[in-house]
Amino acid sequence: DSGVTQTPKHLITATGQRVTLRCSPRSGDLSVYWYQQSLDQGLQFLIQYYNGEERAKGNILERFSAQQFPDLHSELNLSSLELGDSALYFCASSRTPRASEQFFGPGTRLTVL
Amino acid sequence: AQRVTQPEKLLSVFKGAPVELKCNYSYSGSPELFWYVQYSRQRLQLLLRHISRESIKGFTADLNKGETSFHLKKPFAQEEDSAMYYCALLYNNDMRFGAGTRLTVKP
């Protein structure tokens, strides 16, 4: 599959814990975006990286951080987890920095108990 | 603030009936608007964008700057159109999504 991939598919953890979500962009794509989809907040943009550098920031909490590695995969780190962090986390990628050209991954479902 | 409003959480129509999914936006500049679709158990995918003025799977959307709307329309709905539809506004490379409308097309 040459599309955007995300691991794990599902993650169940407890409050106060820390997790890392991983995203591999489509082959040739340099930009990665992270989104959070929750029942009460809908789909919200968190952060964007382009070729290893942070490009744009949305509604990302200070407890959350991300990075993009030299091989262009990205990781989203969520710490001091709260019940309200339970959501579907999507990654998207695009060849250019333009969000209008992004393709989405299947998402990681995080459940915080 | 730049935002997208989809007033209907749920919309149900019969197969063959026309369907319109509403989207209103607030943005003072020239908006760049999109419709995304998410079929059951599948990833979010781009359906169409207003710039290209295209028709995908029979869906069209016209930007009405006077009414600040970008409604999605299809003259004859099909069962396979049942999905979650999101309207989105691109602002400073931040894709702002509406809350989504779940469309159910009944046989």
Multimeric status of the protein: heterodimer
C-alpha-based Rg of chain A, rounded = 13 Å
Largest beta sheet of chain B, briefly? 6 strands, mixed
Kindly provide the radius of gyration of chain B, computed on alpha-carbon positions and rounded to a whole number of angstroms: 13 Å
Mean pLDDT of chain B: 91
Number of strands of chain B: 11
Strand content of chain A: over 45%
* Low-pLDDT residue spans of chain B: none
Largest interface (C-beta under 8 Å): A-B, 23 and 19 residues
Terminal-residue CA separation of chain A? 32 Å
Percent helix of chain B: under 10%
Distance between the termini of chain B: 40 Å
Mean pLDDT of chain A: 94
H and E string of chain B: EEEEEEEEEEE
**How many beta-strand elements of chain A?**
11
Give the uncertain stretches of chain A in residue-range form. Answer: none
H/I helix tally of chain A: 0
Q: Main beta sheet of chain A: strand number and arrangement?
A: 7 strands, mixed
Given the helix and strand composition of chain B, which structural class is it? mainly beta
Task: Write a short abstract of this structure.
Chain A has 113 residues and is an all-beta fold. Chain A is built from no helices and 11 strands.
Features:
heterodimer, A: 113 residues, mainly beta, 53% strand, B: mainly beta, globular
Characterize the structure shown:
The complex is a heterodimer of chains A (113) and B (107). Chain A has 113 residues and is mainly beta. Helix content of chain A is 0%, strand content 53%. Chain A is built from no helices and eleven strands. The mean pLDDT of chain A is 94. Chain B has strands at residues 3-5, 10-14, 19-21, 24-26, 32-38, 45-49, 60-61, 72-74, 83-91, 94-97, 101-106. Chain B is globular and about 40 Å long. The A-B interface holds A 3-4, 33, 42-45, 48, 55-56, 58, 90, 92, 97-100, 102-107 and B 32, 34, 42-46, 49, 86, 90, 92-100.
